[in-house]
Specification:
The chain is mostly loops. It is 15% helix and 0% strand. The chain contains 1 helix and no strands. The longest helix has 15 residues.
């Protein structure tokens, strides 16, 4: 919810739903895969409401496209700026160099 782009929530994430570590619960017809809306975590719901309101009040988080190099600017500061591993600003030639860290 706090990153640029479209947020991805799975059914029940907003309630604190858990599948108990099962990564394939959609194939089960039992409580492991069911969403119990009656057991919503009120503190989590309150937090998500605040985060959603924050996101709605900061349009940069709902950007339609990922900014590419060079940085797109909509005002005094760029929307985003890219840095190399050494912290220096990216240069045009850096975009064609593959960086591999070990």
């Amino acid at each position: 919810m706090l990153a640029q782009g479209r947020p991805m929530l799975r059914a029940g994430d907003d309630l604190g739903n858990s599948q108990g570590g099962n990564d394939n619960a959609h194939a089960q017809d039992n409580p492991t895969g069911w969403v119990n809306r009656g057991r919503a975590d009120p503190d989590l719901l309150a937090f998500l409401r605040r985060v959603i309101a924050f996101r709605a009040s900061h349009p940069v988080l709902a950007a339609k496209a990922v900014p590419a190099q060079p940085a797109m600017s909509t005002g005094r500061l760029p929307d985003i700026f890219w840095r190399r591993e050494d912290g220096a600003p990216m240069q045009p030639e850096d975009w064609t160099t593959r960086i591999v860290a070990f």
